[in-house]
């Protein structure tokens, strides 16, 4: 559990600092990731709901129920370990949430169509600036 909390804090910070996502959107995505994590655990833990002793006092039945509880706990731990091994956001459940969030909330590619022209202009400007710096360096070297 502590590794999930640590991942949550790191992922939130990554969204805010690296991707410059607004606070509300970052928390929305983090909470959606938490839901994916707990839904995967619920699939395993939900099986425990059908395992009950009721009013049964039979020692054999009690052992069977205890064995089922232990087995299901082991499966839940295995699911948690899969998340940890994959760094959480690489687990298919969380990756699906992140991809859907990006699809739903990010800027469409059409908004960036004007940028290649501006980038080309900026690159040409930098190349020209670099050439002038090299000329100036050569002039200074020649003066020595």
Plain-language structure description:
It is a single chain. The protein is mostly helical. Helices cover 76% and strands 0% of the residues. It contains 5 helices and no strands. The protein has helices spanning 2-18, 23-45, 59-85, 92-105, 115-143. Helix 1 (2-18) packs antiparallel against helix 2, helix 2 packs antiparallel against helix 3 (59-85) and helix 2 (23-45) runs antiparallel to helix 4 (92-105). It starts with a helix and ends with a helix. The mean pLDDT is 82.
In short:
The chain has 144 residues and is mostly helical. It is built from 5 helices and no strands.
Fold topology:
Layout: H1 2-18, H2 23-45, H3 59-85, H4 92-105, H5 115-143
Helix pairs in contact: 1-2, 2-3, 2-4
The 3D shape can be described as elongated
| Unreliable spans | none
Global mean pLDDT = 82
Q: H/E element string?
A: HHHHH
Report Rg.
28 Å
Regarding quaternary structure, what we see is single chain
Helix content: over 70%
* H/I helix tally: 5
Which band does the percent of strand residues land in?
Answer: under 5%
- How many DSSP E strands? 0
Please summarize the sheet with the most strands. none
